[in-house]
Design brief:
- Chain B: It comes from Xaviernesmea oryzae.
- The complex is a heterodimer of chains A (582) and B (349).
- Chain A has 582 residues and is mainly alpha-helical.
- Chain A folds into two domains: 1-57 and 362-582, MetI-like fold (Orthogonal Bundle), CATH 1.10.3720.10; 83-344, MetI-like (MetI-like fold, Orthogonal Bundle), CATH 1.10.3720.10.
- Chain A has 26 helices and no strands.
- Chain A has helices at residues 2-11, 24-27, 30-57, 69-75, 78-111, 117-129, 132-143, 149-158, 170-195, 199-206, 211-240, 243-252, 257-265, 271-297, 319-346, 363-371, 375-405, 412-420, 427-439, 449-474, 478-485, 490-501, 503-519, 524-527, 535-544, 548-572.
- The longest helix of chain A has 34 residues, at 78-111.
- With 349 residues, chain B is an alpha/beta fold.
- Chain B has two domains: 2-147 and 267-316, Periplasmic binding protein-like II (D-Maltodextrin-Binding Protein, domain 2); 150-264 and 322-347, Periplasmic binding protein-like II (D-Maltodextrin-Binding Protein, domain 2, 3-Layer(aba) Sandwich), CATH 3.40.190.10.
- Chain B has 13 helices and 13 strands.
- In chain B, the strands form three sheets. In chain B, strands 1, 2, 3, 4, 5 and 12 form a six-stranded mixed sheet that branches. In chain B, strands 8-7-9-6-10 form a five-stranded mixed sheet.
- In chain B, β1, α3 and β2 form a beta-alpha-beta unit.
- The radius of gyration of chain B is 21 Å and the shape is globular.
- Classes of the chains: A mainly alpha (582), B alpha/beta (349).
- Chains A and B meet through α12, α13 and α25 of A and α3, β2, α4, β8 and α9 of B.
């Protein structure tokens, strides 16, 4: 793999105006070395663990020789195929739901005069801060078939004995997965809406199109790249999530890929079979990315440049209340209801008893803060890892996105693919790749925070890359060309032009990574060592022991800390990335 | 004031008991030696699936109290998960756990055959209840560190004693449709053994019928217990000590049925890893598990104390007063993979 990077670095010189052969020592310019260095990091973060996986999928566990047997074992059972098709079905349903939640809300908050836009923005952000497995626990409390609050109320109202809603079902799985992730759709689509100026919409109006037709023919097509990108990320995020299926799909008896993978990872460990089982997911990502490219290539989408533009909001009249009602339904499902029951459970001795002073207690908080063996340290570890992973991933992604968008290297598409590819590797598989590559001697990182940090950086590189890439794409090269004309190098252009211009985007990206990294479960579950446990793992253990009240208390503490860091971050960066001009 | 005195009345015997304990727990010479060596190592890491986190933390606290200067780290997960982690570490030659405790002694036999365990006969073995001591490895590769019979739990608010199931096969009665909770044999060690036992008793037909009752499948047995406490499910497979301590100490609406076809008695086993990073602390810890502090701690939490002469908690029935069944260790290892596979095929997960 290093040989590829070498050729990349060499062909970098092709970008120079004069196509003469350059002596080797001149190729070792600081800029070239930087690209080499970046390529090296990508090798460490992505290629080495993935390569280990691919190789092991064709490796005979006993003899070490070449074999296809792992694939036979991975796909030779009907149940294993079912898990795969179930996952695709679930992923598709989640995408639809996330778009139904995210796109109208994004439009409502950025382009209309709907009341309560800031409230909706804050609530959507709340949905993002709440880890999917906590939302899952909230929904178990709400929609457990026999004791869920919704069902209890339904029973007492109607006298029925059958549950009205059951979280342990396909629908429950899809809903809980979607509410944990539609924030990404909201943010990506919102920022696209924000970037469009109204001149094109005005043109449509002048030519006689009404507001609805304008929205359909002009506004939405302009944000299509963002919607497609968001749909893609939503799908990949949904199929790779571990926590929600662990909570819901086992009782729902709806097997999905991540659960099937835990079977391969249980004793006797069949790493090779698991690797084989996860390869099609990688192929699906590649296909989806290709599809996205194909769709977007056919049309020019550069509607955003360094020039300012007027952006006007749509007056909805009485429809604004309809839209508001819809937004309220979405945020209730996603945040208000699960958060409310979760907080209530955190202060309850027994969550089923409901509100009453007798039932009130602070002992759950005392337990998780001072008595539980690992939760206190886990809180610190999670936050520290979140900060480290977000910072490193953003810096790295900015450089890669710049190379890719400006086509500074041949095969930059490969770099883009690499940077996005970790997203589809189910966290557990990524963890095992990392485990195989780095846990053992000579690297021997098992049981350290370093291996978690590296894995988190890799896992969130796609988000960092997507954010940075969208940002770089929105900047017209003319400004950097000005730097180049005046004699500045690429690095100067990045430092003094691209970086500052993207400060807000990058800050947003940082938060987009910090929050999920501080809650990360899917990768952490196999990489935590005895003394490096993170909150998510402790929470999952509590759920497995059925300690929902204590879980709710620890979850609430995690939420409070994340909110505080996010608030600090926003303050330090000067501007609130969610609350744009309104 | 009366209140205070009532409390005092309880405290005084407790104090006397504690004083008696302190006397009984004078350190022996070999213990002192181990302690000194353990202090140099600084800590012990305990991989445990035998108990809940809360209970294991309590045991660790007692250990740290007795042996100040030796830190005790609990790593708790369900049986198969802990085992898998350890096997992973063994393959990586990066063993981090010093001591492991599980409810599936089959795991211990496998580790022993791999040569992963250290041989050790703790001093306190001599004071153990003989029946329990004899359940362990004859060559001292592991000790018995507890017995938590798996029994039937039911919610007392939703089910009367008369209605409650009497034996395991009652779980398949259609009247419990949507009301049974069980664990998963691929996650929980003791559920694995239970699945084998049911198959031995009733054939796979038992699970075909159970499947029609749409049981809620959790990962561990503690999960099912809590589902019954909350009323989400009416009956479940659950470990006896959890049911007793919740119903007596926390007044939770849960009660126990000792199934007439036999409570499953999986002996919990504890072993020291051959490559334990802290071998002396590990020995000190294993010996401590059989000591008087833990015996008292077990008895208080409605577990069977391991030491002879420690009285059972009130409300606990002696082990020989009801039917219990065990799965032979080597038998368990042989049958488990196939049983897990069948379970997955039947329940689809």
């Amino acid at each position: 793999m290093t040989s590829v990077s070498d050729t990349d670095a060499m062909s970098w010189s092709k970008d120079e105006p004069a196509k003469v052969r350059v002596p080797w020592h001149q190729r070792l310019q600081p800029a070239n070395l930087l690209w080499l260095f970046l390529a090296g990091i990508l090798v460490v973060l992505i290629i080495a663990p993935m390569w280990t996986l691919v190789v092991s999928s064709f490796t005979d566990a006993k003899t070490g020789g070449w074999t296809l047997h792992n694939y036979v074992e991975a796909y030779g059972k009907e149940r294993h195929i079912t898990a795969l098709t179930n996952t695709l079905k679930m992923g598709a349903a989640v995408v639809v739901l996330k778009l139904l939640f995210g796109v109208p809300l994004a439009w409502a908050c950025t382009r209309t005069d709907m009341p309560g836009r800031n409230f909706v923005r804050y609530s959507v952000f709340g949905a993002f801060i709440m880890p999917p497995y906590l939302a899952g626990v909230g929904w178990i409390l709400l929609a457990g078939p026999n004791t869920g609050w919704i069902n209890k109320i339904w029973h007492s109202l109607t006298g029925a004995t059958e549950p009205l809603v059951n979280v342990f079902s396909f629908g429950g799985l899809v809903l809980v997965t979607a509410i944990g992730g539609f924030f990404l759709v909201f943010v990506l689509v919102s920022s696209a809406f924000e970037m469009i100026n109204s001149e094109m919409e005005d043109a449509a109006n002048i030519l006689g199109a009404g507001p609805f037709k304008t929205a359909m023919k002009v506004t939405f097509p302009l944000v299509m790249p963002a919607i497609i990108g968001a749909a893609l990320l939503s799908f990949l995020g949904a199929i790779a999530l571990y926590g929600v299926p662990a909570l819901i799909s086992i009782p729902a008896r709806y097997p999905v890929v991540v659960i099937q993978l835990t079977e391969f990872f249980s004793f006797p460990l069949r790493l090779e079979v698991a690797a084989a089982y996860s390869i099609p997911l990688l192929l699906i990502t590649a296909a989806l990315l290709g599809l996205q490219k194909l769709i977007l290539r056919r049309k020019g989408y550069v509607a955003v440049s360094g020039k300012g533009g007027e952006r006007r909001i749509v007056k909805l009249g009485r429809w604004r209340w309809v839209l508001f009602a819809y937004c309220m339904i979405v945020v209730s499902l996603a945040v208000i209801m699960p958060l409310f029951v979760l907080l209530l459970a955190a202060f309850s001795q027994s969550w089923t008893t409901g509100f009453s002073l007798d039932n009130f207690t602070l002992s759950n908080f005392h337990y998780v803060l001072f008595e539980h063996s690992s939760s206190q340290k886990a809180l610190i570890g999670s936050v520290g890892l979140g900060i480290a992973a977000a910072t490193v991933a953003i810096v790295l992604a900015l450089f890669i996105a710049y190379i890719v968008q400006r086509k500074l290297l041949p095969f930059s598409g490969v770099l883009a693919f690499l940077a996005v590819s970790p997203y589809v590797v189910p966290g557990i598989v990524l963890a095992i790749g990392f485990y195989a590559a780095y846990a053992l001697p000579p690297v021997a990182l098992y049981g350290t925070y370093m291996i978690l940090a590296l894995a988190f950086i890799t896992r969130f590189l796609p988000i960092a890359f997507t954010t940075s890439s969208a940002g770089v794409r929105s900047i017209h090269p003319e400004m950097e060309e000005a730097v180049r004309i005046l004699g500045g190098g690429r690095t100067t252009a990045i430092r003094h032009v691209v970086g500052p211009l993207l400060k807000r985007t990058l800050a947003g990206g940082w938060l987009l990574i910090f929050v999920p990294a501080a809650q990360e479960l899917s990768t952490a579950i196999f990489l935590v060592g005895p003394t490096t446990r993170v909150v998510s793992v402790v929470l999952l253990d509590l759920s497995e022991e059925g300690e929902l009240e204590k879980l709710a208390a620890l979850g609430s503490l995690l939420l409070i800390i994340i909110v505080a860091v996010v608030a600090l971050g926003m303050r330090y960066l000067g501007r609130d990335f969610m609350l744009r001009r309104s | 004031m009366k209140h205070v005195f009532a409390h005092m009345a309880g405290i005084i015997p407790a104090l006397m008991l504690a004083a008696g304990l302190a006397g009984a727990a004078e350190m022996t010479d070999s213990e002192k030696q181990l302690y000194e060596a353990a202090k140099k190592e600084g800590s012990v890491t305990w991989y445990v699936s035998q108990t809940t986190t809360e209970f294991a933390d309590g045991m660790c606290n007692l250990f740290e109290k007795r042996y100040s200067g030796v830190e005790c780290n609990v790593v708790r997960a369900s049986g198969q998960v802990i085992f898998q982690r350890l096997v992973q570490e063994l393959q990586a030659s990066a063993v981090q756990g010093d001591v492991m405790s599980t409810n599936d002694d089959g795991q211990m036999l496998q580790l022993k055959e791999q040569g992963a365990l250290a041989q050790y006969a703790p001093e306190n073995l001599k004071d153990m209840v003989p029946v329990l001591r004899d359940m362990a490895d004859k060559e001292n590769y592991w000790i018995t560190s507890g017995v938590s019979p798996l029994v039937i739990a039911y919610n007392t608010k939703l089910v009367t004693e008369a209605e409650a199931p009497k034996n395991w096969s009652d779980f398949t009665d259609p009247k419990w449709k949507g009301q049974v909770a069980i664990g998963h044999p691929s996650f929980s060690g003791s559920v694995g053994l239970w699945t084998i036992l049911m198959n031995d008793l009733y054939g796979w037909d038992f699970f075909e019928k159970l499947e029609k009752n749409a049981p809620q499948i959790g990962r561990s047995v503690a999960d099912g217990h809590n589902l019954v406490v909350s009323g989400e499910r009416k009956v479940a497979l659950a470990p006896l000590p959890l049911i007793l301590s919740d119903s007596i100490l926390k007044k939770a609406p849960i009660a126990v049925v000792y199934p007439t076809d036999g409570a499953l008695l999986p002996p919990s086993a504890t072993a020291i890893m051959k490559d334990a990073p802290h071998p002396n602390a590990a020995r000190l810890f294993e010996n401590f598990l059989l000591g008087p502090e833990i015996a008292e701690y077990f008895a208080k939490d409605y577990r069977y104390p391991l030491r002879a002469g420690v009285p059972l908690a009130e409300g606990m029935r002696p082990l020989d007063s009801y039917t219990t069944k065990s799965v032979e260790t080597s038998e368990g290892i042989k049958k488990l993979p196939e049983i897990q596979e069948k379970f997955r095929d039947t329940f689809g997960i």
